[in-house]
Amino acid sequence: MSPSPVPPRVVAVVVAYNRAELLAEVLDALAAQRVALAKVVVVDNASTDASAEVARAAGDLVDLVSLPRNTGGAGGFAAGMAVAIADHEPDWLWLMDDDTVPTEGALAELLAAVEGTDHVVAGSRVVWHDGTEHPMNTPREKPFVGKDERVAAARRGGIPIRSTSFVSMLVRADVVREIGLPIADYFIWNDDFEYSTRALRGRRGLHVPASVVVHKTKVLGATDADPGPRFYYEVRNKLWMFRRSQSLGPFEKAVYGASSVRRWIRTFVRSADRTVLRDGWRRGYRDGTRTRPRPNAMALEGLGRASDAVAQVEPA
């Protein structure tokens, strides 16, 4: 009898900020996965609650990276992925926020879907705590996909995708080494859209409905729900992406750009405080057209071990 193949080495990256109770639930769920994780890198984004203590109490499975300042979700994932690559030799990285609670078989289903294939990204089905599909984390199906690719994906129980969310995204480590890290200066919003489309440009990815995670947001809202002052990041980052990033081709930028404008209009129409959105639009448009994101080595400098890992994984 031939020996069983060595399972892939998976390192989870969890970005935490002031949700200690939820973080404890996430870490318990990660420890209970049917496929054992090699390590869980928890990035504490300068929390003011007990998040760091919760991570330390989780034991040897967790590698805690405490940042001296809040770098947002984008900076947290960039720092955590860099540490995971530099220090833990993963085959795959599994990315999630500190309010993402994976079901026991979530990782096993992702790995089963990509095993023996050329897929480099896989995303889970994301539900709210009542089991409702979460509209905030809907993946974008791959357009104009060929029959062979669609059939191959279906045989794996998956759907070909063009983008997915950091709320349970599995990405192959060699692709991270090739394309680099998420752009830290995005801070929040659209960092996962930019990064997943960058990883999937010219490559294949899957949405895996059998892999289920629970996204425990306070409310069940879509991406066009009223964002308040955060609308600034939506506008700035989309403009940065469409003008600066190579994650999308020209035709894709036109299509997704038009879709974004329609979403912004819906957001404005539904808003209870349009003055705030006007200000976010004005500042976002100004910065999105007149500035560009800094290199990660600059945006994430002064973070000690995390900065060293960024420089190692993403040299200038």
Automatic annotation (TrEMBL):
Molecular-function annotations in GO: glycosyltransferase activity
All copies of domain Glycosyltransferase 2-like, residue ranges: 13-177
One Pfam family here: Glycos_transf_2
Keywords from the UniProt entry: Glycosyltransferase, Transferase
EC number, UniProt record: 2.4.-.-
Pathway involvement of the protein, from the record: Cell wall biogenesis; cell wall polysaccharide biosynthesis
Similarity comment text for this entry: Belongs to the glycosyltransferase 2 family.
Protein name stated in the entry: Glycosyltransferase
Protein's organism: Agromyces lapidis
